[in-house]
């Protein structure tokens, strides 16, 4: 039954496909993001932190500047600029900066992302052709061009948004679907533990709930996670070097080398944060096992608030420990791919889910998305204490 969150706004949990065990995601109707009053914003915020991912229908005329305003309303004290920090280079951002960022003029910091030709004039961006970040740059065992062209695909990589070094991940990310590619479903497959596959529309974004991941831990593991911390490397996306993710896009492969810290661009330790392993939802208090596998440089494991701390810096030990946790959720039944039509705005709790792009054959045509996230003004808070800088 629909949950009427405010006058005229209808929030309806997404229908699960057969066999799905996901417990998050909702669609929202009856809201105009160009004219969002405070009561509707508060209802939307409550819905977001209840359902983690919202698909807001019928936003065909949303102005990019209003999309940016929506992000800013979730974090009024944040610096009003896109979270990836324009002007940073491949040297600082690694694969994240492999493709240029295109900010929509006058939007405040909404970025055009997608694939293919974007038209003569896309909201002031003239004659752009985009090429999305490919899983080939992130995976240890990528598909071939012929496999991709045939409709096979991979999750590019599951992550939360933000550059992490010197700024905290955004509280929310908004993603407006302007143009979808047209073609049959793609088949996403992986075989890190055993052969797995899902079928989904081309141009989709996949999500996993890190609250669900937390709840897949044993009671003993939950206690350890509640009291433990992780630390990204300085300039984490440059530091990853030649390391690559597994075929699920979740967790690291055994091969590859990180960069020595002395080979990174200049950095300072006050910008390298130590994050809780479990992040509390700012609204519901729900516990989320929120780590970024590729960039994890150190683990600080503690089994109780006053117990001894075990520092793990060995890459292989971190990899094996973390993959063992992630394996529990890298399964079709825990991965949610919300239906997303042109005109929809998807918004997610960036502190409570991980998301991944999914590639599609170039023959399916262009994809145009307006994406926005802004670095959080505060660090995520864990059950034991907060992050320290
Ligand atoms: Fe992202």
TrEMBL record:
<keyword id="KW-0560">Oxidoreductase</keyword>
<keyword id="KW-0479">Metal-binding</keyword>
<dbReference type="InterPro" id="IPR003819">
    <property type="entry name" value="TauD/TfdA-like"/>
</dbReference>
<keyword id="KW-0223">Dioxygenase</keyword>
<comment type="similarity">
    <text>Belongs to the TfdA dioxygenase family.</text>
</comment>
<dbReference type="InterPro" id="IPR042098">
    <property type="entry name" value="TauD-like_sf"/>
</dbReference>
<keyword id="KW-0408">Iron</keyword>
<feature type="domain" description="TauD/TfdA-like">
    <location>
        <begin position="12"/>
        <end position="372"/>
    </location>
</feature>
<dbReference type="GO" id="GO:0051213">
    <property type="term" value="F:dioxygenase activity"/>
</dbReference>
<protein>
    <recommendedName>
        <fullName>TauD/TfdA-like domain-containing protein</fullName>
    </recommendedName>
</protein>
<dbReference type="GO" id="GO:0046872">
    <property type="term" value="F:metal ion binding"/>
</dbReference>
<dbReference type="InterPro" id="IPR051178">
    <property type="entry name" value="TfdA_dioxygenase"/>
</dbReference>
<dbReference type="Pfam" id="PF02668">
    <property type="entry name" value="TauD"/>
</dbReference>
